TrEMBL record:
Organism: Phanerochaete sordida
One Gene Ontology CC term in the entry: cytosol
Quaternary structure, from the entry: Homodimer.
Name of the protein described by the UniProt record: Formate dehydrogenase
Entry binding sites for substrate: 93, 117
Enzyme class: oxidoreductase
Site feature Important for catalytic activity, where: 256, 309
PANTHER family, per the entry: FORMATE DEHYDROGENASE 1
Domain D-isomer specific 2-hydroxyacid dehydrogenase catalytic: 38-341
Length: 358
């Protein structure tokens, strides 16, 4: 079979660090195994435009592997051209770069390595909440500059203790964030999700469900976004919703950039409506130099905890999603059933309720 993969360029770092498996250089560690099975394996980062590697090679590929970190967009138009395609594998979690409705209509299977990096992201969320609430970035920048003015940073630093934290999306990551925040003695944990947790799970997490989004954000000091990107979440956090946030709230988004309106977030930060915004996901990746989320600040000059998309691609995560990709391929080649949680689109269409209510 012809297997193609769109991965990000790792450059010198990938040559020096073979555990950077998700790179073009290290090819998810699949080459020797795939070739020993008689398969053809082509890997590139070139994914945009009609002449790109992705657009020209998908035409006769049987399997395409992509990652959310350098998304190879599998649009309906592109899937129309992919006459031999049977399986799309996301090496990681989050398949919004695949037109899932088109894949379902065409009988293509779409798999993710579910759970492979959810702890990695949850840790990043906890870190981001803390660095915003405690005003860490400006304090560190002050030290690098050679300054020392405690009040300048303490005037915008708070404790997480006693605050209300809410997650939009209470799936694997959202729940792990709340679990990890348990010892911080927050005032309350809230969640907003069309899939209710069981009463027992709510009790374990100490989380209360709020079914109205405006009402939910109005109660939170910290909002963390942990829902997939789909038609129901694109632009969910826009200028209108931000008006309903508590003034001076913190917002962390490690889910997908396009869930939050970047211009609206930057404006809310500038006005002080938001005290901070952090995350690793951008509506355009790589983010252009002039992207509003790169340099936005709150009125006191802090509140920006943005980094490139890497929370789910720690070396530990890479080893898990590379192994998970191999397992999905093995199951496929040998006609074995896939691990149910990995199936986004199966032979009978949507196999998950995470990508919108239907
Ligand atoms: P999951 O499928 O376990 O949970 C997602 C939850 O979001 C589900 O409970 C679902 O019902 C809920 N949801 C969906 N639409 C919603 C809506 N409109 N409003 C409220 N809740 C909604 O997914 P998991 O593993 O927790 O991952 C969530 C997302 O995080 C992924 O889809 C991906 O976009 C992102 N992610 C980001 C990574 C990174 O490196 N920054 C790495 C891994 C995931």
């Amino acid at each position: 079979m012809k297997v193609i993969a769109i991965l990000y360029k790792g450059g010198e770092a990938a040559k020096q660090e073979p555990r950077l498996l998700g790179t073009v250089e290290n090819e998810l560690g699949l080459r020797a195994w795939l070739e020993s099975q008689g398969h053809e394996y082509l890997v590139s980062d070139d994914k945009e435009g009609a002449d790109s590697f992705l657009h020209t090679n998908i035409v006769d590929a049987d399997i395409v592997i992509t990652t959310p970190f350098h998304p190879g967009y599998l649009t309906r138009e592109l899937l129309d051209k992919a006459k031999n395609l049977k399986l799309c594998v996301t090496a990681g979690v989050g398949s919004d770069h695949v037109d899932l409705n088109a894949a379902a209509e065409k009988g293509l299977e779409v798999m993710e390595v579910t759970g492979s990096n959810v702890s990695s992201v949850a840790e990043h969320v906890v870190m981001s909440i803390l660095l915003l609430v405690r005003n860490f970035v400006p304090a560190h920048e002050m030290i690098e500059r050679g300054d020392w003015a405690v009040s300048d940073v303490a005037r915008n630093a708070f404790d997480l203790e006693g605050k209300v934290v809410g997650t939009i999306g209470a799936g694997r990551i959202g729940q792990r964030v709340l679990q990890r925040l348990a010892p911080f003695d927050c005032k309350e944990f809230l969640y907003y999700d069309y899939n209710a947790l069981s009463p027992e799970r709510e009790r374990e997490l100490g989380a209360r469900r709020v079914t109205d989004l405006k009402n939910f954000v109005a109660q939170c000091d910290v909002v963390t976004v942990n829902a997939p990107l789909h038609d129901g979440t694109r632009g969910l956090v826009d200028a209108a919703l931000l008006q309903h946030f508590k003034r001076g709230a913190w917002l962390v988004n490690t889910a997908r950039g396009a869930i939050c309106d970047a211009e609206a977030v930057a404006a809310a930060l500038k006005s002080g409506q938001l005290r901070g915004y952090a995350g690793d996901v951008w509506d355009v990746q790589p983010a252009p130099l002039e992207h509003p989320c790169r340099a936005m600040k709150n009125p006191l000059g802090g509140g920006n905890g943005m980094v490139p998309h890497y929370s789910g691609t720690t070396l530990d995560a890479q080893s898990r999603y590379a192994a998970g990709t191999k397992e999905i391929l093995e199951n496929f080649f040998e006609g074995r059933p896939q691990t149910p949680a990995n199936v986004i689109i199966g032979t009978k269409g949507y196999a998950t309720s995470s990508y919108g209510q239907r």
